[in-house]
Each structure stands twice: as C-alpha cells, then as structure tokens.
Amino acid sequence: MRNTLKVSLLAATSGALLMAAPPVLAQAQANGQPAPAAKDKDPNRVICQKIQETGSRVASKKVCMTAQQWEEQRRNDREYVEDSQQRSLEPNSG
Asked: Quick count: other Cβ atoms within 10 Å of Cβ 73?
C-alpha cells in the first residue's frame, strides 16, 4: 500500500514537471525568443520552477536546481516509474 502511494506521488510530481516545460517552450517561441535550452547549454546554470503541492490546488513551492540536477532528477524519476511498472507486471511469489 505504501509503495503504491509512493509511485502515485512520484508519478504526479514527474508529470507536473514534464507538463510544465511545453508551455514555457511554446511561449518563448511565440515571442520570437530562442527556446530556453537553445539559449544556454551550461549544465551549472540554476533553474527555478514552481512545483504544485500534491493534494492542493493552491499551494506550490519554488524548487531551484542546476540544469544537470534537473536532468538527473528526470532520469531518476523515469527509472523509478519504469521499474515500478515492470514489477507490477511480475507475478506475485506468495
């Protein structure tokens, strides 16, 4: 039960992070500005994002990490979700 909750929370957080990126890119392109990724490739630049608190429609927090840390976070989240999905397909041994 607890692992299911963790997976749900992680999936929601990862989904929120991934869904936040396309509007930013579309807005930058609509304004004639280069996409943020094309503007600066420095892995040490700091990127701050507002992350909506799980279970609340209003509360959010600001999270700042380097571009490299954001990429690592996305990779870890993706691996965790894929691993959880793979385990859910395996037959129970009990």
From this structure: 15
